[in-house]
Structures are given as structure tokens and as C-alpha cells.
Design brief:
This protein is of the alpha/beta class and 325 residues long. It contains twelve helices and twelve strands.
């Protein structure tokens, strides 16, 4: 049927005004905004077990601050390896009535009470890095980090393929549940023997000394897995000092580790992409505050693992210089 100009005009008017079920005209919905929800003026506290100045945690801090700048929210970063002091920082954030808290849980039991106070105060909490198994039970919105078991198993597979049969797993923080999970994961897939060596990350000279002594006393050890980039560099020096032919791998990145990979001194680094552990929690808290969005459905949001090898070390090195890897 041929439409007259009058019919076309009426159709256009109906498209603009619409029609309600009661026969009355209704205004059309306003156009949807293309801008992301913004929790403007919100204050978020990031409280980790890694102090500023640590090469790993500085990248986490960079990610959190970049997200804060993008969303127009305030982000403060504080870190302390002492669980009691970390709990105090959480209590201070709760007293200051922040709009959200990001917290790493290397020692979950020690932080349970402080995190409980935040949840009771209706302050959303996102856990990061360590403590994924306790995150949901403690009332956190979600957890952002690496599955330490999965990452450990991946490292064990890589080391087995490289011919390692007896592995020294170097733990640098006593009581950190995530570090033990890494060693256990490697043990599951290596198919050989895994021994643990406890060291103090704050005394790297002593780390080199202890790893050197172990390699000299047990020449069957033909692989070393460090769980921290600074410890990796100390272990590299120990391998040289002891004259060992042990193969070295590590968790996490630093500029020194990337250079060691390029120089064939480190086989690979397990990369949990810690920039995301700063950036994503602020993103999630911003969306929760501005739009009541939740992420994960009770499951963690994984940021890894990835593997940095000689094949991609040059690309990663450029990103590490920018402070994002």
C-alpha cells in the first residue's frame, strides 16, 4: 500500500512519543550514555603485605593509581609485611570511612577480624594476590590474582621438560600460604624431588649464601625455583658462586630478571601480571560504588599465569620499563 505524506508524518510522531498501555503518550527514553559509570569523589584504600619500594608491589601500586586517575577516584597505597600492622592499616581505613578496600592476604587468619570489621561497616572489600581460598568466606566482593596451585603446576611442567629431577624451592616469606602452594604445585608435576629452603627476602646476601651452601652440599639438586624476582637474582649469583649447573626459574618479574632471561641465566619467569592486581580491583570497586556491579560470582578473577621466556623477553622488557609489567 502506498503511504501518503500524512501517514508517514503520523508514523514519525508515534516513533518519537510512543504509546502507553493506558492509551496515553509516553516520552521516549533518553539516549544511553556511552560513558563508563564514575564513582567521582570516592576514596579507596589499597593495603598489601608488600611495602612501597619493592619491585613487584610498585607495579601493583602503579596499576591501582592508574585506575584511580582514569575513574576520578582517590587511591591510597600502604603496605606492611607484618600482619598485625596490616590489620591496623585496615582498621584505620574503616575508621576513615573509605568507600572500598583492596587487601592482600598472605596471612588470612591474622587479617580475618579486621576485614570482618570492614564488611560489617558495609565497606566493599576486594582481596588480591594471596588468600583466594579465604576471600569469599571473609565476605570480600571478589578476589583478583593468580591461582598459585595452577601456576606452581605450570612451573613444575616446564622444569620437568628442562630435565630437572631434584628441585630447590626457595620460600622468602614465612607463613605466606601462597608461596607454599606454589611449591606444592611444582611438586605435583615435576615427577621428582622438591625440597624447600626458607630464606629472608630482606637479606639478599644471606639468601645467596644459603642457596650456595645447599647447592654445594647436595649436588643432586639440578633445579632452583625462586618465588620472588629479587630472590631469583640472589639465587643466580649462588649458582655461579657454587659452580652448580642447576637450572633456575622464578615467579614474578623485574628488569633484572628479564635481563637474566635474555642472558640464559633464568629459564623462565611465571608472570602473574601484577599490574592487573592493582588496576582491576579499583575498576571493580568503582563499578560497585557507581553501578552496584559485582564480578566473579564467588570465584576468583585470575590474572595469570603467563610465562616470560627468551622468546618474548624483549617485548616484556619494554613494558617493564614503563612500570606496567
Amino acid at each position: 500500500m502506498r503511504r501518503t505524506p500524512i501517514v508517514l508524518a503520523l508514523l514519525g510522531a508515534l516513533a518519537v512519543t510512543g504509546c502507553s498501555s493506558g492509551g496515553q503518550t509516553a516520552q521516549s527514553a533518553p539516549p544511553a550514555s556511552s560513558a563508563a559509570p564514575q564513582a567521582g569523589g570516592a576514596r579507596f584504600a589499597v593495603i598489601t603485605h608488600g611495602a612501597p619500594g619493592d619491585s613487584f608491589w610498585d607495579v601493583v601500586k602503579n596499576g591501582a593509581e592508574a585506575a584511580g586517575k582514569q575513574y576520578g577516584v582517590s587511591v591510597t597505597y600502604q603496605g606492611d609485611g607484618d600482619p598485625a600492622k596490616q590489620s591496623q592499616l585496615i582498621d584505620q581505613a574503616v575508621s576513615g570511612k573509605v568507600d572500598g578496600i583492596v587487601v592482600s592476604m598472605a596471612n588470612p587468619d591474622a587479617l580475618k577480624e579486621a576485614i570482618g570489621k570492614a564488611v560489617t561497616a558495609k565497606i566493599p572489600v576486594v582481596t588480591v594476590n594471596s588468600g583466594a581460598d579465604s576471600s569469599k568466606a571473609f565476605g570480600a566482593v571478589t578476589h583478583v590474582g593468580q591461582s598459585e596451585d595452577v601456576a606452581g603446576r605450570g612451573a613444575g611442567e616446564q622444569l620437568k621438560a628442562a630435565g630437572v629431577t631434584k628441585l630447590l624451592c626457595v620460600i622468602h616469606e614465612a607463613g605466606n600460604v601462597g608461596l607454599d602452594q606454589r611449591c606444592k604445585g611444582a611438586e605435583e608435576t615435576l615427577g621428582g624431588t622438591v625440597e624447600r629452603l626458607q630464606v629472608d627476602v630482606s637479606n639478599l646476601a644471606d639468601v645467596t649464601s644459603k642457596v650456595t651452601a645447599k647447592l654445594q652440599s647436595d649436588q643432586q639438586v639440578n633445579g632452583v625455583l625462586s618465588l620472588n624476582p629479587a630472590v631469583a637474582v640472589a639465587a643466580r649469583d649462588a649458582i655461579k658462586d657454587s659452580g652448580s649447573q642447576a637450572k633456575l626459574a622464578t615467579f614474578d618479574l623485574s628488569a633484572d630478571v628479564v635481563e637474566a632471561i635474555k642472558a640464559d641465566e633464568v629459564l623462565f619467569a611465571v608472570d602473574q601480571q601484577q599490574y592487573l592486581q592493582g588496576y582491576l580491583p579499583i575498576t571493580f570497586l568503582n563499578l560497585y560504588k557507581a553501578n552496584l556491579n559485582t564480578v566473579g560470582g564467588g570465584l576468583p578473577v585470575n590474572t595469570g599465569p603467563g610465562f616470560v621466556t627468551k622468546d618474548n623477553a624483549d617485548q616484556v622488557a619494554k613494558l617493564a620499563e614503563a612500570g606496567t609489567r
